[in-house]
Design goal:
about 475 residues, 10 helices, binds adenosine-5'-diphosphate
């Protein structure tokens, strides 16, 4: 069942339910109040007759009944054989049987309804006694036609049924039209989505022809955003596949070339075996880097979360940097504030060593590499500054992309990495809720800053987050 049909049916059903409850109430109220009015009139006539009657030991003497106009009256009294016989009536000609024979035995006043020929009568039977609790001498029966009540009942039923039916029909039709108009943008969206799927073209977007504040407008915006994200993901995936194949091909070609060479030579060649070993190591490194990156990006990289003295960590890294630099560049220590961060010691060390290795690699011999740590407003800023080649501004935004290398020819020379180091560093820092930024001026040098939140700030934030729950 379509949403449009469901909405229309639901809406119409509720209206029909409300109308039927309301209609039934009105109907019952009106019928009851009309019957009550009629009964009230009959009671007052009966009361008038009883009030105007005279009683003594011989019996009851009723006033002239023919003066009563709009209510038919019969008086039935027991004769000498104790049979009820008609004593008086205001009907002419008189009716030879009681209006309601069933009630001529009651001991209290009683209303009943009877059918006579083709009319319905409301009958009030009043026992006649000389005094209260005395034996019943006879009965007075008053009858009033229910014709007016029945007619009003019929007319009201007709109006209520007709009106309700028309209202439900009208509501159904207008509900169908309104639901159609409201759901039309959704229909358009569905068609657009189908077209996008069929054309296998994620670059298409759904035209926004509804206000952005409306539900449909927001849905279109969200859908387009999803498309954009999907497009980026697919493009990224394709690029990754192309990059990985490309990167894997180079070492594999080298391995294959060296194997061919040895085959042709018919013997093992030390140089070729060395090259094969180096290329296989490069391959293994690349594959494990890719795996690490994939896990870091998707948040599946298990990270320790322990308090670390960041200044001490930097000192440890500083010593390793000196070994790595091996005298090629001077490794110096700059600002050295103290501060604690929460994170994974080994992974953070890996990030810093990566930045240091890059700095050493891209700085000509005799240059400098300065490591620093500063405590700035609850954040620890760890800087790795070199006096190397620098990175052109247009490349600075791309160096964190995987496989991206500023100088592609460097890779071919065989001394560069696969372009994964900075991506891994970026994601590890991101997973620590920190950020990695670069400042560089070509020809002068580069600074990489790792920003990590101080442990105090982290615990303060945790406390603040817990407060509303406890309060
Ligand atoms: P790689 O493994 O090739 O070093 P990275 O992801 O670590 O890959 O770095 C990406 C690119 O960024 C490098 O190829 C290099 O061109 C550039 N780069 C990184 N660090 C520096 C630096 N300190 N100075 C100049 N260029 C750098």
């Amino acid at each position: 069942m379509t949403l449009r049909l469901r909405l229309t049916l639901g809406y119409t059903f509720v209206l029909a339910l409300v109308l039927s409850i309301f209609g039934t109430l009105v109907y019952l109220l009106l019928v009851n109040s009309m019957t009550a009015q009629l009964e009230h009139a009959m009671i007052s006539v009966a009361d008038d007759v009883i009030y105007s009657s005279r009683r003594d030991l011989q019996g009851i003497f009723l006033p002239p009944l023919d003066l009563i106009g709009n209510v038919a009256v019969q008086v039935w009294v027991r004769d000498s054989q104790q049979q009820l016989a008609q004593f008086d009536t205001n009907l002419s000609p008189p009716l030879d049987h009681p209006f309601d024979p069933q009630t001529l035995t009651v001991e209290m006043r009683k209303f009943s309804s009877v059918g006579m020929e083709d009319t319905r009568l409301r009958v009030l039977t009043v026992p006649l006694t000389l005094a209260a609790d005395d034996h019943i001498l006879g009965y007075m029966q008053l009858a009033s036609s229910l014709e007016i009540v029945d007619q009003a009942q019929r007319s009201l039923l007709l109006v209520l049924l007709g009106g309700s039916l028309a209202a439900v029909l009208l509501a159904g039709i207008s509900g169908w039209l309104i639901a159609g108009a409201a759901l039309r943008p959704l229909d358009l969206m569905t068609h657009a989505a189908i077209r996008i799927t069929r054309a296998d073209d994620l670059s298409r977007r759904i035209e926004l022809d509804a206000p952005t504040s409306s539900e449909v407008g927001r849905l279109i915006l969200a859908f387009n955003e999803t498309l954009e994200r999907l497009e980026n993901l697919f493009t990224g995936q394709r690029r990754l596949l192309a990059d990985v194949s490309h990167e894997l091909r180079t070492p594999l070609t080298a391995i294959r070339g060296n194997l061919d060479l040895m085959q042709r030579m018919g013997r093992l060649d030390d140089e070729s075996i060395e090259a094969i070993t180096a290329e296989s190591e490069r391959l293994t490194r690349m594959v494990s880097d890719l795996l690490l990156l994939a896990r870091a990006e998707t948040g599946h990289l298990p990270l320790e979360s322990e308090p670390l003295e960041a200044d001490k960590l930097l000192l440890e890294v500083f010593q390793q940097a000196q070994v790595l630099a091996d005298g090629k560049v001077a490794v110096l220590l700059g600002a050295h504030d103290q501060g604690c961060v929460i994170g994974d010691r080994d992974r953070l060390k890996q990030v810093l060593l990566n930045l240091i290795a890059n700095g050493i690699q891209h700085t000509p011999a005799g240059g400098e590499l300065v490591l620093s740590i500063e405590n700035i407003e609850g954040w620890m800023k760890i800087g790795v500054t070199d006096t190397g080649l620098g990175i052109p501004p247009e490349e600075q935004t791309r160096i964190f992309d995987r496989f991206y290398r500023v100088d592609q020819s460097r890779r071919r020379a065989g001394d560069g990495g696969a372009g994964l180091g900075l991506s891994i560093a970026y994601w590890i820092v991101r997973r620590h809720d920190g950020c990695l930024e670069v400042e560089s001026s070509p020809g002068h040098g580069t600074t990489f800053n790792v920003w990590l939140r101080c442990a105090d700030l982290v615990s303060e934030e945790l406390e603040q987050a817990a407060e509303p729950e406890s309060g």
